[in-house]
Amino acid sequence: MADAVAVPQFQLPVSPADLLRDDGRGDYVVQEVLPIRELPPALAAFRAAFRARGALAVLQHFDSVYSVLHHFRTVGTAVKEDALELMVNVVSHHSNELPGILSDAGLSHADRATHLNALKMNCYLLTSLVDAFEMETLKNSLSEADPGGKNKKNHAKTSGSFWEEEREPVLQLLTQVLQLDLRQLWGGLSVEEEFVSLMMGSCYRILENPSIGLQKYRATREAVTHLLAGALIHCRQMFSATLKITQMLQHFEHVAPVFAQAVSLWAKEYGLKSLVGELLREIGQKCPQDLAREASGVKGYSTFVTELAGEIPVLVLSNMSVLLHHLDGESYMMRNAILAAMAEALMQVLNGDQLEEAARGTRDEFLSMLQAHVCDVHSFVRSRVLQLFTRIVQCKALPLTHFQSVVSLAVGRLNDKSVIVVKNAIQLLAAFLSNNPFSCKLSCADLDKPLKKEVQKLQEMRDRVRSTAAPVITPEEEWEAMLPEVRAATQQLFQPLQEREEEMLEVEETVESAVEQITGLLRKLNYKSAACLTQKALCRFQGKEPFSSLMEENEEATILDVLKRLYTGSCPGENSEDPPNDNSSHKTKEVVQEEQSQTELLKQETLVQYLQDAYNFSVKITEALNLISKLMYENSVSVVQEAIEFFVTVSQFGVPQALLGVRRMLPLIWSKEPGIKEAVLNAYRQLYLSPSEDSERAKAQSLVHSLSLIMVDASLGTIQCLEEIISEFVQKDEIKPAVIQLLWEQFTEKSQCSSLEQRAAVMLLGMMARGKPEIIGSNLDILITVGLSEKACEDYCLAQEVCNVISKLGGDPKPAKKNSAPFRLPQNHMLFGCLSETVSKGFAQPSTHWIPFMDAAVMLIYQLAEGPEEICAHILQVCSQQALEKLQEADEQNSDPGNSPSRDSGGAASLPTFMLMHLVSLVGQVALQQVAHLEVSVSAEIRRRRILKEEKTKKHSDSSKKKRRSQATGNETTMEEELGLVTATADDTEAEFIHSICETELLDGKHLFSAFVPLVLKICNNPGLYSDSALSAAAALTLGKLCMISSEFCDSHLRLLFTMMEKSPLPGVRSNLIIAAGDLAIHFPNLVEPWTSHLYARLQDPCPSVRQTAGLVMTHLILKDMVKVKGQVSEMAALLIDPDEAVVGVAQNFFGELSNKGNAIYNLLPDIISHLSNPDCAIEEESFHTIMRHLFSYITKDKQTESLVEKLCQRFRTARTERQYRDLSHCLTLLPVSERGLHKLQDNFDCFADKLQDPAVYSCFQTVLARFRRAGVKPEAKALAEELEQKLSASHNRGLDSTETCQEGSQIPVSVPAKQKTIRSSCRQPLSPVNRDDEDFVTPQPCTLRNQKRAQKRRPRKKAVITFSSDEENSSEDELLAELREEETPTKTTPITRSSARRLR
Question: pLDDT tens, 956-966?
C-alpha cells in the first residue's frame, strides 16, 4: 500500500492535453506517451497487473491507456477494442469491491485517497474511450456516402459494430458506479462536480449522434436516461443539466423527442418534477425575436414542448404561464408548440364534466386561444390548430358550448388560400360529423319539425308557470306602492262634511267580519271606504285586535297603521289560529308543485337547446357541403381526396344534400391522377357495395335501390361516369351474382317495381355488360321479348334503354383474334324485326319519346346488322308510305280544285306536324349512320379482307420461294418493296372509294335520300310556313346531317345553314345547327373555315343554352386545332363573366384544358387583353378584372411573367383611352413580379410614365411594388424598388401639376385614331342573333391569292342579301324561299392543317 500512497493526486482535466503539463501543484502528470507499436504489450502488462492488484493497477498503468486515447485515430481497431474491454473489466471490478471497502470502519485516509485516485482514473479513461468511439462512429456515419475510401468504410463497420454492442453495457456500468455511496471517498462531502460531469458528458456525447433516435437504439437511450437520472439525483446537477439540455435543444434538432421522453421518465419514476419547470422557464425566457432568427433552435424547443406535453401534460399545464408570451412572437413553430401543449392539456387534463370552476375557466381560456389562432397570419399555424381541434373532437374533449363556434371557424377556413389549411378544415368537419353528440341523422328538414314542436311546448309551459307562479312582489312592497293613495283617501276623512261625501257603509258585527270587509275593500282598491270603515271600527272595537290603540301620534296615523297590518297580514284576528295553519299547508303544496313545474321547465329548456344546437350544426354542415363540393375540382390532389372522403362521411349521416356531392364526384373517375380515381372508386365502394343488411338478397336490394336513386333525373354525363365505375367493379368481381339476378327480375317484372325502376334495372345491366358482355349476350332473347315487344310502343324510354344495352355487344374494342370478323347478326334476326316493327308503328303516333328511341334503334341496326342499309331503307319506305297514305286521306277530305297549283306545299302542310317531324328526323339519322357505316365499318371490313388476302398471298409466295431457292436475293428485295408500295397505296384507294360513294351515289337521283332532300330544304327555307319549333329544330339538324354526306352538297348549303344559325328566333334550331357546324368543321374543315367568325358570334347569343352549346363546340374545335384561336378567342374569355353558371363552367373548363397545351394561354393573353379593353367591346371594368384574374392564374413560369411584364408595358404606347391604361396597369398587379421583372419595369418606364397621372394607374404600380417588397428581397433589389418608386412618384406628381396641359395636348391626336378604330372595328362585329328583316347577312370572304384580292378591290362585290318571309301562311311560295345566289357563296378556301398545335408553342 506504500506504493499507492506515493502516487500524486489525480485531478480530472478540462482537456486531455492538461495531463501532459506539470503545473507545479504536485498533481498526477502523464510521464510518457507510448508509441503505437508499444501499445499492445503495455496493455498486456496492464491486464497482468490488474489480475494481480485489481483496480488499483491503473495507478501504475494509466499512461498505457492514455497513449491509446492519444493515438486513437491512427491506432488499430484491435488495440482500441482491447483497451475498452480492459477498462470495462477494471471499472466493473472496482465498482463491485467498493461497497465492501467503503463499509470498512478502519479504512485509513491514505487508502481512501488511493481508491479515490484509482476510481477517478478508471472512470476518466473509460468515459474518454466512450467519447472517442462515439466521435469515430459519428465521423464514419457521415463519410459513408463517400464512394471512395473502401478501407475506411470496412474499418468503420468493424469498429462501429463492436461499439454498438458495447455501448449499452458501458452505460449500465457507469450507472452502477454512480449509484454507490461515493461521498465517503470525498470525506463525507458531496461527490466532486467534475466527476459527475465526466459521466454526464459521455451521455451528452452519445445523444449528439443523429441516429440515436432510431428504434434499434432504444435500449441505449434508456441506459443514457437512467445514467443521467442517477447523476441528477445523487449529485445534484439540476442547474447544469438544465443549461446543457437547453443548449443541446438549440443545436441538435434530433434530441428533442429523446429529451422529452427522458424528462417525462425522470418526473414519473425519479420524482424530478422541478426539472420540468426549470426547462420550460428557460425556454420561456428566450427572446421571441431571437427565436425568429434561429430556425434550428426554435425547431428543437418547439418539438420538445410538444412531445413533453404529450407525455406529462399535468406538469406542462402547471408551467404553461411562462410560455404564453411566445404566442405573440414571430416564430410560427413556437406558436404551434404552445397551442399543441394546450390541446394536450385539454384532452388529457381539462376534460370531463366534473371540473372545478378554476379548471373550467382555464379550459375555456385555452379553447378561446386556439380559436383565435384558427385565423393566424401563418398558414402552418392555421392548419396546425385545425389538426389539434380534430384530435380534440375525436377525443370528445370539446364542450358542447364551443361546438357551433369551432364549426363556423372550420367552414370559414374552406375558403383559405392555403391548400393544407383547406385539407385540415375538411378533416375537422368530418371529425365533427363522426363524433357529433346530436344524432346519426342530420337532416335540417327532419330536425326542424321536432324543434318547432318542442319550442311551442316550451312556450306553453312558460306561460303556464307564469300564470300559476307566486307573486314576485311582497305584500309590504305592494303596501308601499299603495301608501300615497291610501294616505290621500284617509286625509279626506278629516275634511269638512260639505267638501266630502258621507260614507253610507256600516261596520260588521264581529271583528273578523270587519277585518274581511276592510281587507276586501283594499283588494278592490276602494281605499276611501276602507279608511272610513277602519275609523268606525276603531270606535266600535276599542281595545280589540287589530283595532287596539297603538299610541300613534294622531288618528290618521292610527288608521294607516291598522290598514297596513290588515293588508300585509301581520296581525290576524283573534280566532284565526287554525286558518293560518291550513294556509301554510296549502302554500307548501303550491311550493312543491311550483318546484316540479320548474324542474319540467328546465328539462324542456335543455331539450330545446339540444335540438337547437343540432339544427344549427346541421345548417353549418349543409353550408360546408356547398363549399366542399366546389373543392372537388381543385388542382391539389390531397384536397380532392379529402373532399371525396368527406362526402362519404356525410352520406352516412343522412344529410340530403350529400347526394349532390356524391353525384358531383362522378366525373372525377376520368381523372388522370390515379389517387383521385381510386378515391372515387373507394367512395362508391363504401357507399354502395358495403350495405349493413344481413342477407345477400337484402344487400342486393339495398345496392340496386341506392344506384337507382342516382340515376333519377341524371344527365347523360352522369350515367357515363357511373357506367365506368360499375364496369370497374364488375371486372374486379365486386358485384355479387345476387345483384344481377335481382336486376333481371325487376326488368322482367317478376318482382314488383315501377316503370322507373324497370328502366333503371336495364340501364344497370347495360353498365355491368360493359365489364362482362356475357351478362347481356346470354339473355339477348329476354331483352328483345320484354323490351322490344308489343309493349314497346307504350314505353319508348324502356325500349331506347334496351337498344343502348344491346349495343354493348358490338362495342368491344378488343376482338378475341387479330383481324377477326366483327360481331354481326343476320338480317332475319328477331331483333331487327322487332326494331323495324316498333319504329314503323310509332311513326304515325304522336310521342315525344319516339325520336330518341328511333335514333337508338337505327344506330343499333347499323352497329349489329348484316346489310343494315337494306333494313333501314325498308323502314324509310314503310314510314314514307304511311305519310303518303295520310296525305291522300287529307287530300280526299279537303279536295279543292283551286288549290291544285300549290298541291305540294298545301299537302305538306296538311300532314300532322309530328309525322313530318318524325319523317325528317328518321331521314337525318339514317343518313348520318349510313355515312358512319361506310367510313368506319365498311372501310375497316375492306381493310381487314385485304390484309387477310395479303397474308394468304404472302404465305403462298413464301412456300414458292422455298421451292425456287436459286432465285437472286435482289429480286426478293424488289418484290418486298413493291409489296410495300402496294400496301401504302391500298389505304388511299379504299378511302377514295368510300369518298366517291358518299360524293356521287348517296345523294344522286337513284338513292333513297334524294327523295327527301327537297322536303328538308323546303322546311328550312320557309320558317314562316313551317313555324313549329320542334319541326324546325329537327329539320335544321337533318340538314346538318345531310351535309355530312357530300362536300359538294355541304358547300352549296352552308349559307343556308349559317343563315338559320344567325337568324332563327328558335334557340333549339340555333343549338342544333351549332352542333352540326362543329361536326362539319371536323369533316370538311376547308369549307367551314371562312364561316368561323359566325361560329364565334354564337358565343354572344342571347339564350344561355345556345351560348353553352356554342362554348362546348368551340372548346372541342379549338382544342383539336380545327379553328383559329387568334383574335376571336377573347369571346371565349368573355364567357367567364356570363350570368349563367353553366356557361361560366364551360369557359373555365376550356381555359383549363387549353393551359395544358404548352404556352397557349401565354401566347393568347396579349391579344385577349387588347380585345377586351377595347371600348367597342363594352366589357365593364370590374368584369374585365374578373376575367384577367382567372386567365393570369395559369401564368406560372418566371420567363412568361417577365415577358408579359415587358409586353404589357409596351402596350401602353398603343393604348388610346384612360380605360385601357387602367386595364393594362391592373394586369400588371396580377403578375408575381420578380427582380428581373422589376428590371423590365425600369427599362420600359418611358412607356407608361405619362400615364401615371391617373390615380388608378399609379395605385396599381404601387401595389406591384408593395407585393414585391413583401416577398422578401435582397438589398440590391430593395434599392431598385425604391428607385423605381421615386420615379413613379415624381411622374405622378408632375402629371398632376400639368394635368390641364396634358389634356389639351392629348385631345388632338387621340380623337382621330379613336374614331378610325371605331369604324374599323364596326366592320368586324358579328351579326345580331335576333331575327330582324331589315338586316343583311354578309357571306364571309374566302381566303384567295393576292391577284384575286386585287381584282376584288378593282371590282367591289355586291353584298349578299337574304331575307326571311313573314310568318303569314298565305304568302306565296316565292316569298317563302330564302334568296340564295351562287356567286355570293365562298368557292375557294384556305386549307387548315389539322395538326397546328406547334403554332401555340
Answer: 776 666 655 54
How far is Cα 1060 from Cα 1022, in angstroms, rounded to an integer?
Answer: 11
Which residues, 6+ apart, have CB-to-CB distance to 81 below 8 Å?
Answer: 159, 162
Higher-pLDDT residue of 1397 and 125 is: 125
C-alpha cell read off for 169: 453495457
Residues 6+ positions from 486 with CB-CB distance below 8 Å: 527, 530, 531, 560, 563
Nearby residues of 661 by Cβ (< 8 Å), 6 or more positions away: 625, 628, 629, 632, 643, 647, 650, 651
Cβ-contact 1019, 924 below 8 angstroms: no
* Rounded CA separation 166/176 (Å): 16
**What is the per-residue DSSP string for 828-847?**
TSHHHHHHHHHHHHHHTS--
The three grid cell numbers given for residue 906, joined into one nine-digit string: 298545301
For the residues 658-685, what does the mean pLDDT come to?
86
| Alpha-carbon torsion (976, 981, 982, 984), positive or negative | positive
- Kindly state the cell numbers that stand for 812: 368491344
Residues 6+ apart with CB under 8 A from 141: 156, 160, 209, 210, 211
| Assigned C-alpha cell, 921 | 328526323
CB 482 within 8 A of CB 527: yes
Q: 371-381 burial, b for 16+ CB within 10 Å, e for fewer?
A: bebbebebbeb
Instruction: Say if CB 721 and CB 670 are below 8 A apart.
Output: yes
Report how far residue 1024's alpha carbon sits from residue 1064's, in angstroms, rounded to the nearest whole number.
11
User: pLDDT (tens digit, 9 = 90+) per residue, 1189-1198?
Assistant: 999 888 888 8
Q: Residue 1112: which pLDDT band, with cuts at 50, 70 and 90?
A: very high
* Prediction pTM value: 0.69
| Three cell numbers written together for 866 | 348484316
Query: Whole-angstrom Cα distance, residue 1274 to residue 1264?
Result: 17
String of DSSP letters for 1067-1083:
HHHHHHHHHHHHHHHHH
Closest CA to 1023 of 1384, 1381, 1331, 1339: 1331
Of the candidates 1267, 1169, 1161, the residue with the CA atom closest to the CA atom of residue 1215: 1169
Whole-angstrom distance, CA of residue 763 vs CA of residue 808: 11
